[in-house]
Amino acid sequence: MVTVDAGLPYPHNISDTPANILILEKQVANDFSAALFDVQMVVSQRERLDFVWPLWEIFENKTTKSMKVVDAFIEPIVADAISKMLDERRRFLKKARGRYWITSFKLPLISRS
Question: What are the structural domain ranges in the chain?
Answer without folding.
Answer: 3-100
